[in-house]
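User: I've been going back and forth on whether these two constructs are worth ordering. Before I decide, could you fold them both?

Assistant: Sure. I'll take them in the order you sent them. The first construct and its structure tokens:
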Amino acid sequence: MRFAINHITAQKLSLEQFFAAARSLGLTEVEIRNDLPDVVGTIRPEDVKAAAEKAGVAIISINALYPFNVWSGDLPKRAVALADYAAASGAKALVMCPLNDGTKVAFDDLVAALKAMKPILAERHLTGLVEPLGFPVSSLRTKKEALRAIDAAAGGDVYKLVHDTFHHHLAGETELFADRTGLVHISGVVDPTVAVADMLDAHRVLVDGADRLGNIAQIRALNAAGYSGPYSFEPFASEIHDLADPVSAVKESIAHIAAAV
């Protein structure tokens, strides 16, 4: 398995410390963010690229363009700016997340957004990683719907899916699209009291034996279906971010997953 790590896992680490932490785990693939922490808004892309090259890590993606499926207002301008940053930093892809506030977005608007974003990505040799969000309030909950829109936009050469184990479970989606998947985000939920419909990012911890999301089953199924891309840790829970030694916790999770799969 190709494990990777998202900066949100250890968001208190500086960029250089984060890259060094990845290498200490034996990992060479990382994801940086424009929110938690906001690397994009605080560090020049040229400096990010230099730090990654010095550390010997590859930036597989920047998280995230939001809400990518509402192509209006300042989104087109932000999309170009983020794509420019990604290209200059050496990142290979942009994660693209849909509107997640209870507002419905028409399928035609989703397709239009994918069509508009396609040349921006293609001109910079970037992949668009479309990540459906399984929350009940999400405007794009399933990978099946995302693929339908990607194909309607003739975007199969530019776009791939993000299979997020948390959102896959929340959406109740069972179908896998391993050959159309470019990245898998892994996190677990261990709180025995929260209902699936009430699960939030704040519940997302590292994967261990108490996981309720079926991470191990999902990973086995993806591997069996031919997925060979990175599995990137993306826990949002504050108890993970506040750990004195998050790197050791990730190491334990890697060991658990590797032994179970």
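The second construct, handled the same way:
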Amino acid sequence: MNNDFPRILTLLRKEQGISQKQAAADLGISQALLSHYEKGIRECGLDFIVRTADYYGVSCDYLLGKTPLRQGEKLHVPETDDSDTREAVPNVDRKIISNSIHIVFGILKKINSKSLTRQITVYLSCAVYNAFRMLYTANPKNPTGLFETNGGLSEALTDGRMQLSMAKSRMLLSGEKPAQGDAIRRDALPQLNSESLSMEYPDWAPSLFALIKNTENEHKTN
């Protein structure tokens, strides 16, 4: 059993205000055994996982920490055209990134800060610029006139701009007032969690959750 199961098992019970004694009785086990499950001391069987998922009204995948969505919704990818189906994997990756960016700009719209939106836009633009320029210049036969910035400096300049944009964004989000523009009030920051994101962005949230999961899996391998 993974480390997420004990944590989520305990969280669900406490969220619903159910005592450990009551939950154990409802689930047909002793309180001592439930305590061991919640502390990760003992592992349970599949039948207990299914019973517990039904008891708390969540999916088994959520209970095991496999998805941040309580009902275990699958990744939704919008309909594709014929050309997309020839390259299914790149298309899914593209949709994951595109849908996730929709949510980022949706949150920026709520915060309603031109300065913050500008900084995040610069950061994302630089990332795309770097990726495209790397692909473009990989073939020496491609004409160099498309870019004005010296190739030897380009990546360092855009990486530096990305770091600066993130620093300015953090400053704005912490409530500091920039040289130009207004500071962001704390009460302007939306409260976010997997449930609210799923409700507000039902078509895009699964992509964002997949992006987070994929990125953090990459972190573990490096």
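Notes on the second construct follow. The mean pLDDT is 84. DSSP finds eleven helices and no strands in the chain.
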